Amino acid sequence: MPVPWFLLSLALGRSPVVLSLERLVGPQDVARCSPGLSCHLWDGDVICLPGSIVSAPGPVLVPTCLQTELVLRCYQETDCDLCVRVAVHLAVHASLQAQVMLSFQAYSTARCVLLEVQVPATLVQPGQSVGSVVFDCFEAALGSEVRIWSYTQPRYQKELNLTQQLPVLPWLNVSANGDDVRLVLDVSEEQQFGLSLYWNQVPGPSKSLWHRNLTGPQTITLNHTDLVPCLCIQVWPLKPDSTRTSTCPFSEDPRAYQNLWLVAQLQLLPPRGWRLDAPCSVPATATLCWQAPDRGPCQPLVPPLLQENVTVNKVLEFPLLKGHPNLCVQVSNWENVQLQECLWADSLGPLKNDMLLVETRGPHNNKLLCALEPSGCTPLPSKGSTRAARLGEQLLRDMQLGQCVQLWDEDLGALWACPMDKYIHKRWALVWLACLLFAAVLFLLFLLKKDHVKAAARSRTALLLYSADDASFERLVGALASALCQLPLRVAVDLWSRRELSALGPLAWFHAQRRQTLQEGGTVVLLFSPGAVALCCEWMQDRTSAPGARGPHDAFAASLSCVLPDFLQGRAPGRYVGAYFDTLLHPDAVPALFRTVPVFSLPSQLPDLIGTLQGPGAPRSGRLAERAEQVSRALQPALDSCFRPPAGPGDSRDGTWVGT
Fold first, then answer.
1. Residue 373: CA atoms inside 13 Å, Cβ hemisphere, count?
2. Which of 185, 276, 281 is nearest to 233 (CA)?
3. Range with the poorest average pLDDT among 148-157, 289-298, 638-647
4. C-alpha torsion sign, points 499, 614, 474, 548
5. pTM of the predicted model, to two decimals?
6. Among 51, 339, 408, 517, which is least packed, fewest CB within 10 Å?
7. Are 472 and 534 in contact (CB under 8 A)?
8. Between vectors from CA 330 to CA 324 and to CA 333, what angle results, nearest 5°?
9. What is the CATH class of 458-642?
10. pLDDT tier at 293, thresholds 50, 70, 90
11. pLDDT at 399 exceeding the cut of 90
12. Residue 109 pLDDT
């Protein structure tokens, strides 16, 4: 049936070249010859009989060239079909009459016509062209591919053939949008048409995937994973006996071939058959390979096994005597391995630690035996250093004693799988001995490092000694001690040990804390304030006795009888450090005797103080500065409280330190 003009106009477009197609009026087929020849078209189609080539007793008329041209066959002014005009050029090999067969084949269409041609005697010149015959015409669908053959009957030589690709549908546009692919059908408004998506499976029938009746225009979205090379689109107007137009836009798309191998599957068909299931036909070869348990590359068994061409969705067989879980199938396309599946592993269990022995046989019954390893096939026997070379004589003995399983046996060679478990068990004693020796060395290292690990894991200790000048300063000391505990440090301060201090007395409590701090590698921190400086000066002026304690909890005054002798006798470095708040005390106010150890200004030198207290295991400078910032933020409220303006007359608040 003719195709509606809207389809042809969309397909052919407005190109002057396309619009210049010759228009044939009427449905009748016509044959015409070049001047000087006479020809006749037999009515109706004839049966295409291939026949065989025969020898001619005399000169014959044979086709020498086949040409095609697109024309339009119009039934009405706006109702035309694409048509393929065929021109056959003829030469005399020297008879005056011949029957020329034209065979036409396209998707779902096939025709044969018979032309009878006569040549006047005056044109008979053996080997020379005598003219041509033209046939109008073979109808074909838009976007289709047609094949045309021409030959004489009976045949005096092989046929001529030609493939013609008809124009595709420019109104079908394929675009990608992320993970989606869009089919845009630019069909005129309210035009009703049928649309089908199918797999063009060759050989075999096409498989329909999707079919709908639609009204134009339309945009259809496909997932990009659905694209395969044989995915085709068929469109036709919703009218009786309408011509269907097909196109396969993804046949050259690299993504489509990637998806094809992603959805393809290898399937085992007992007892020895297997099949490659895929939606499209694809040129591929298959061979067996051996997969070792170490999950290295699967080693192809070529030779001695040969590669086999694969036809998708068709049962194939390998000539195996017995299956093995380590035998796998590799499917390759253009020398690239696309699929690999150990089909027998599902039925025979996991991979085995077997050695595959490969025997190849030559034309004079000479045999070569080797063991397949990752480095290649090691000849047996061999003096190499591989596992197969070391066990070569034992493997040969196992094969002769029938302890190896024969998997394949043909004229080209044979395959055996030899178990290796018994050789592995012989080496377990050495492995266990090595493990025990390694464990003993680790245990010894653990004992040697035990004390060091314990010391590193334990927090260092800092003993804070200060003069309780007033309540605000005590709060500031408490804030400093609490912040140092978060570093981590173990901090001892009399402010947190009032009950123990009352029970033991200030001097006894200080001796106990000082002894424990120094034994643990800790540090005694002398926190200088105006009151502490005054107590130190008082003690140094009258060294016969320590200054009197200001209360039952004044550990600083009690400690001077031990602290000052340590400084005077040079025992302070490494045990003591000093510190003071820079807004509370001038650096020169610290007595010179105590400057024999580091004296830190707070809070500006907090990183240095923290690094000294934490010792060799202190963190890096960046981390140290971060910790110092945390301590500084914790001290700030207490510092603000300690240095607020003095109270006015009549104010009953306690006196506070004021920075100058």
1. 17
2. 185
3. 638-647
4. positive
5. 0.45
6. 51
7. no
8. 170
9. alpha beta
10. confident
11. no
12. 75
